[in-house]
Amino acid sequence: MTIIKCKKCGQEFAYEVWGSVTPGGKERETANCPYCGEVGYSEITSQTISSYKLDDKGNPDRRKSY
Ligand SMILES: [Zn+2]
Question: Which among 10, 22, 34, 65 could disulfide-bond with 46, CB atoms 3.0 to 4.6 Å apart, if both were Cys?
Fold first, then answer.
């Protein structure tokens, strides 16, 4: 889990890259800001990227992914 700050709206959010690494089938996956939708991070991967809002303690809220 990585925490980054959105360059557009300034909110911090978390993202993680998860899932199995498979040969081929790579696409550009993005971590979108949960607040404004701006792309905060992207990479070419066969895995999946999910992003999460942070709760009031600064921990990723895993109940909902974006
Ligand atoms: Zn944002």
Answer: 22
Using the mean position of ligand 1's atoms as its centre, give its distance from the Cα of residue 46 in Å.
25
Q: Provide DSSP, 10-52.
A: --EEEEEEES---SS--EEEEEE-TTT--EEEEEEESSEEEEE
In the chain, where the domains are located:
2-52
What pLDDT, in 10s, does the model give residues 16-34? 999 999 998 899 999 999 9
Q: What is the model's pTM? A: 0.90
Neighbours of ion ligand 1 (CB under 5 A): 6, 8-9, 33, 35-36, 38
